[in-house]
Write a structure and sequence with these properties.
Elements (H helix, E strand, L loop, with lengths): L1 H29 L2 H20 L5 H18 L3 H23 L6 H14 L7 H16 L19 H17 L2 H9 L4 H15 L10 H21 L3 H15 L3 H5 L5 H28 L3 H20 L12
Helix pairs in contact: 1-2, 1-4, 1-5, 2-4, 2-13, 3-4, 3-6, 4-6, 5-9, 7-13, 7-14, 8-9, 9-11, 10-11, 10-14, 13-14
């Protein structure tokens, strides 16, 4: 029934967020920041593959994932295998969440709640859970959907010229966020020697700001523009004043407060949500990969200024694009 589907979406969303942050923190503790960001990059490449390729029969994907994730049981502890298995799990989690989500009329509250609990528990993630995830995901995908075929847009930037700027804004917003976001748990653990149980709680502090006003703040371009100015300011605070814990967390809160305006981009589609969902999801995933790639380069070259500066640059270009929209696009459909 509907409650079962809602519970399935909540659980799969919890596992998704718990996995992404948890595997990052665990690799950070066992290997280092560059390796942790690289695992995150593999995860997001998995998301690109899910969003961009034609996905066939769910049972076929389940068999593939059994084969790939079986490596986790045999070789957990090998970094390259963890990267590959993480990518496969990301694909499976995206598939499962999509199968549940499309059956729901409302999912926002479940998403926020699941994300909060997942971030709180993420520091307790262990690698053996990869094998457990494999069993859970494969069994649930097969049970949830046996023969459905899903159509995806293919590797491209959407060709709908009417919404070109909006797609670029979506792409750059996500590149902006993923350029710097994983530096936060690193700073909490390595710079501030924060106890692990607190890391997930403080990481959620930024996300709490991300979700607090979507239900009652109208979607206006001026708000979106102001939000990304605040987000860029937050990144600058972390960059230049991040040696102070309070200021670092304040900057992190600002990034969430400003970045939460991302929902306003979809309002520019003038109610064409069903038409543009798959394309916007693909564009988001490209932004994730670019942001993490920039973050990885900055860490490898021992220059975190690269990732902070890139994040601010992406935010500025997003602001410029929003300011350049035609006058009739200045007020969004959700007003």
């Amino acid at each position: 029934g509907y409650k079962m589907k809602r519970s399935g979406y909540t659980i799969s969303t919890f596992v998704f967020n718990f996995f992404e942050l948890g595997v990052f923190i665990n690799v950070l503790l066992h290997w280092g920041l560059a390796e942790a960001i690289l695992v995150g990059l593999y995860c997001k490449i998995g998301k690109v593959l899910h969003e961009s390729l034609h996905i066939g029969n769910s049972r076929q994907w389940a068999l593939f994932l059994i084969a790939v994730m079986g490596l986790a049981v045999l070789f957990v502890g090998q970094f390259v295998v963890i990267c590959i298995v993480s990518m496969a799990i990301e694909i499976a989690l995206m598939k499962l969440r999509m199968l549940y989500k499309k059956r729901l009329t409302s999912w926002k509250s479940q998403k926020v709640f699941a994300r909060m609990i997942a971030f709180f528990l993420a520091p307790f993630f262990e690698f053996w859970l990869l094998a457990l995830f494999a069993v859970f995901l494969v069994a649930d995908i097969v049970r949830c959907e046996g023969n459905e075929k899903e159509e995806f847009p293919g590797i491209f930037l959407p060709q709908d010229k009417k919404f070109t700027k909006q797609y670029w804004m979506m792409f750059l917003h996500h590149a902006h966020y993923f350029s710097y976001c994983y530096i936060i748990p690193f700073l909490l653990i390595r710079q501030f020697n924060m106890a692990l149980p607190l890391v997930g709680i403080l990481f959620f502090a930024g996300w709490s700001a991300y979700n607090i006003y979507e239900s009652f703040v109208p979607s206006r371009a001026s708000y979106f523009l102001a939000g990304h100015i605040i987000a860029a300011l937050g990144v600058a605070i972390i960059w230049f004043l991040g040696n102070n814990l309070f200021l670092c967390l304040l900057g992190w809160f600002f990034t969430g407060l400003g970045g939460g305006t991302v929902y306003m981009i979809k309002g520019l589609m003038y109610g064409s949500k069903s038409i543009h969902t798959s394309s916007s999801k693909a564009v988001e995933s490209y932004g994730h990969v670019l942001g993490l790639a920039v973050s990885f380069v900055g860490v490898v070259f021992h220059n975190t200024g690269i990732l902070y500066a890139s994040s601010i640059f992406f935010a500025i270009i997003t602001i410029v694009l929003s300011a350049s929209l035609p006058k009739e696009d200045k007020i969004y459909a959700s007003d």
